[in-house]
Each structure stands twice: as structure tokens, then as C-alpha cells.
């Protein structure tokens, strides 16, 4: 197997690790075929410093193993796309986050797989997915291990935290829903004003805040400039924490689109607490939309 470079046009980059990547490949292959763009598989070969735990492993052994892992993933990807789009690949030395950030700078999107295992495993996988998303201005998708594409009518969910700052989330979710001929569901949660937290909300106040929040989401949809989207979208507004609202609304979703912190801002909580929590718990692929417009964003 020889190494190949990706095409000059934006491709979908898939991170290939030592664990299974079947779910990530299934999602990425479907996206690549739909968008008629190449699929580029990248495996990061992270060679650990010499020590007693790896004394019997040489650099040659590690590289051979890495090539075998990548070769299996390439064969699977080629079967999935069935010749419709090209599949390229490369083996790079370095830490996974650094390698994937470098490989994905000009990508259409970067797709990674994560697993719901032990707390330690969740932290490790979150570090890769969150680390990549925190440093790339392109869409990043985290696909839960064991996920597979549905065969019925699809649903795309957009999780809106602050409606006034949700343009990229909504724009991306609308594009993905159209590409799939899927229904669009927009979910938003509002919190009771802090100065009233000691007072139980009256029913009329609850209704007033719900309708106010719904109007803000509808206004955000109107900014997209497509009347049919604003009319057809299923807007769900709930009181409470946004994380729980998003997870509940996306239980039957084929794709969940949420926002993240700007990767070019050097301070803050990287991708943000909401994105971190949703990545950890969601049962469907999660697309972390760009904090700002990017030329590689998918527009059908």
C-alpha cells in the first residue's frame, strides 16, 4: 500500500485510530458520496519514548502495525463508497490531535469516532475530538461507536444556545437537512432570570418566557432568508438546562448540529462546556459547526 495525498479540492478527513472506526467511516462515506468529494483517511503514528513498557517494540514494528491498521480502514472505505469518490490515505508521525489538525486545515469536514466506555476512556476520546475541534475552523463531526445510518426518514437537530449568535449552527443544520431531504428540528432551552430564582414561576410567566424564547429562535431562522425553512422547522423551546434539552431532542436524530467556541480565541474552555457535555453523551453523530463562515462548509 502506497501513501497518497488528498485532492486539491476540500475533502472529508477521517481520523483512523487503533480502535474500530466503522461508524466514522460509515458517516464519512455517506457524506462524501452525497457531496461528491474525496475521502481522506489519516492515521497518526504516535511513537512513545523508549521505556520498559515498550522495550520490545521498535519504530519499524510500530510503523508496520500502523500501516496495517490504515490499510484495513482504506479497504473498508473503498467498499463503502464503491468507486463513486476517490479514497486517499496517509500515515503521519505525531500526536493524534496535532496530526489531525494539520491534515484537516483545508478539509470540508473532519470526522472522528468516539466511544461510550469508562470515564477514563471518555476523557481520552474527548481530548482528541475536543482538541481537534478547538483548533480547526472547519466542521468537526464526532460519531459514536456502534452508530449506523438509519433507513427511514431522517431528522437533523440544531441545538441553539443563544439565538442571536446561532447563524452558523442554523445555516449548517439547514444545509445538512436539505442534503438528506430530512426534517429540521430546532431546540432551545431558556433559564429563569437569576433575580427570580427564589420565586416559583407563575403559569403566565412560564408561558410568556417560552413564547419570547420561541420568537427569538424564529427570528434567527428568518435571518437565514428562506421562508420555507422558517415555516417547516419544528421549533422546540423548553425551560431548563440546554444540555439536557439538546440530548432529549436528539434521541431519534440522524445528526445533531451544535456550536462551539471560536478556535482562534486563545482563552476560554476550548470548545465550550455545552459542546463537551453533548459530545460525551449524544447517541448520534454530532457536528460542531464553525464559529464563523468557512469556505469548506457544505452548501448543497
Task: Give me a quick take on this structure.
With 300 residues, the chain is α/β, with parallel strands linked by helices. It is built from nine helices and ten strands.
Measured as a percent range, the helix fraction is: 25-40%
Low-pLDDT residue spans: 294-300
Structural class: alpha/beta
Overall, the morphology is: elongated
Q: Helix-strand pattern, N to C? A: EHEHEHEHEEHEHHEHEHE
The radius of gyration is 20 Å
Number of β-strand runs: 10
Secondary-structure arrangement, i.e. CATH architecture of the largest domain: 3-Layer(aba) Sandwich
- The pLDDT mean sits at 83
Counting H and I runs of at least 4 residues, what is the number of helices? 9
CATH topology of the largest domain: Rossmann fold
Main sheet summary: 10 strands, mixed
| Count of the separate structural domains | 2
Strand content: 15-25%
> What order do the strands of the largest sheet run in, or round the barrel if closed?
3-2-1-4-5-10-9-6-7-8
Describe what you observe in this structure:
- With 300 residues, this protein is of the alpha/beta class.
- The chain folds into two domains: 133 residues, Rossmann fold; 128 residues, Rossmann fold, CATH 3.40.50.
- A ten-stranded mixed β-sheet has the order 3-2-1-4-5-10-9-6-7-8, with helices on both faces.
- β2, α2 and β3 form a beta-alpha-beta unit.
- The chain is elongated, with a radius of gyration of 20 Å.
- The C terminus is likely disordered.
Give the helices and strands, then pairings.
Blueprint: E1 12-16, H1 22-35, E2 39-45, H2 59-81, E3 87-93, H3 96-103, E4 109-114, H4 119-133, E5 140-144, E6 155-160, H5 167-180, E7 183-190, H6 203-222, H7 227-232, E8 234-239, H8 242-249, E9 255-258, H9 273-281, E10 286-288
Parallel strand pairs: 1-2, 1-4, 2-3, 4-5, 6-7, 6-9, 7-8, 9-10
Antiparallel strand pairs: 5-10
Amino acid at each position: 500500500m502506497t501513501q497518497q495525498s488528498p485532492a486539491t479540492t476540500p475533502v472529508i478527513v477521517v481520523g483512523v485510530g487503533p480502535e474500530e472506526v466503522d461508524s466514522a467511516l460509515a458517516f464519512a462515506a455517506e457524506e462524501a458520496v452525497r457531496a461528491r468529494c474525496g475521502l481522506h483517511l489519516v492515521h497518526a503514528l504516535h511513537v512513545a519514548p523508549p521505556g520498559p513498557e515498550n522495550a520490545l517494540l521498535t519504530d519499524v514494528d510500530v510503523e508496520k502495525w500502523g500501516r496495517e491498521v490504515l490499510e484495513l480502514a482504506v479497504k473498508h472505505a473503498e467498499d463503502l463508497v464503491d468507486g463513486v469518490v476517490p479514497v486517499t490515505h496517509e500515515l503521519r508521525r505525531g500526536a493524534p490531535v496535532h496530526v489531525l489538525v494539520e491534515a484537516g486545515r483545508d478539509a470540508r469536514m473532519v470526522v472522528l469516532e468516539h466511544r461510550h466506555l469508562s470515564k477514563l476512556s471518555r476523557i481520552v476520546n474527548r481530548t482528541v475530538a475536543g482538541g481537534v475541534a478547538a483548533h480547526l475552523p472547519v466542521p468537526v463531526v464526532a460519531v459514536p461507536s456502534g452508530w449506523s445510518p438509519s433507513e427511514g426518514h431522517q431528522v437533523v437537530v440544531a441545538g441553539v444556545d443563544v439565538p442571536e449568535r446561532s447563524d452558523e449552527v442554523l445555516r449548517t443544520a439547514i444545509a445538512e437537512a436539505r442534503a438528506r431531504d430530512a426534517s429540521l428540528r430546532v431546540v432551545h432551552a431558556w433559564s429563569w432570570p437569576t433575580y427570580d430564582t427564589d420565586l416559583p414561576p407563575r403559569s403566565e410567566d412560564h408561558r410568556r418566557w417560552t413564547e419570547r424564547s420561541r420568537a427569538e429562535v424564529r427570528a434567527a431562522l428568518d435571518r437565514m432568508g428562506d421562508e420555507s425553512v422558517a415555516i417547516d422547522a419544528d421549533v422546540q423551546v423548553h425551560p431548563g438546562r440546554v444540555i439536557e434539552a439538546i440530548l432529549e431532542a436528539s434521541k431519534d436524530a440522524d445528526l445533531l448540529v451544535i456550536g462551539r467556541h471560536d478556535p482562534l480565541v486563545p482563552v476560554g474552555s476550548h470548545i465550550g462546556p455545552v459542546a463537551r457535555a453533548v459530545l460525551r453523551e449524544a447517541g448520534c453523530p454530532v457536528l460542531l459547526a464553525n464559529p464563523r463562515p468557512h469556505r469548506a462548509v457544505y452548501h448543497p
